[in-house]
Design a protein that fits this description.
The chain has helices spanning 7-19, 25-31, 36-48, 63-99, 103-107; strands at 52-55, 58-61. With 123 residues, it is mostly helical. The protein has a single domain, classed as Orthogonal Bundle (Arc Repressor Mutant, subunit A). Strand 1 (52-55) and strand 2 (58-61) form a beta hairpin.
């Protein structure tokens, strides 16, 4: 299953790539793992937002871009921790469900007959 990135994830990838040092378009494209078409679209947007600037044929991160990247890293860590916690809770819930099921109930096959209940008009 493909994992789709949110627009702010893509922008963060661009800012992170540029933050490694003043760089050119191709290096950003590889570091941010973007196609040329997506890079072009999001690079313009990132400049418009004031996160990076184009200076002497190179891209540079602005103070606003550094602040965005710091906030993004904090958010990303919190989000990852929350996802792990939810996964752990789901496992705990399954364990509780199993504990509340008798052996007979767990071995019973669900009724799969389509016409289990006939309508009176069918009789």
């Amino acid at each position: 299953m493909a994992k789709y990135r949110r627009s702010f994830d893509i922008i963060a990838g661009i800012v992170r790539a540029v933050a490694k040092g003043a760089t050119r378009k191709t290096r950003i494209m590889y570091d941010a793992n973007l196609s040329y078409r997506l890079l072009d679209k999001y690079l313009k947007r990132t400049i418009e937002l004031g996160f990076i600037r184009f200076n002497n044929n190179y891209y540079e991160v602005t103070d606003k871009g550094r602040m965005f990247l710091d906030m993004y890293v904090k958010f990303s860590n919190k989000y990852s921790n929350l996802q792990r916690e939810v996964e752990n809770m789901m496992l705990e819930m399954e364990t509780l469900k199993k504990m509340c099921t008798t052996d007979r109930e767990s071995k019973r096959k669900p009724n799969t007959r389509r016409n289990r209940f006939k309508r009176s008009s069918d009789v």
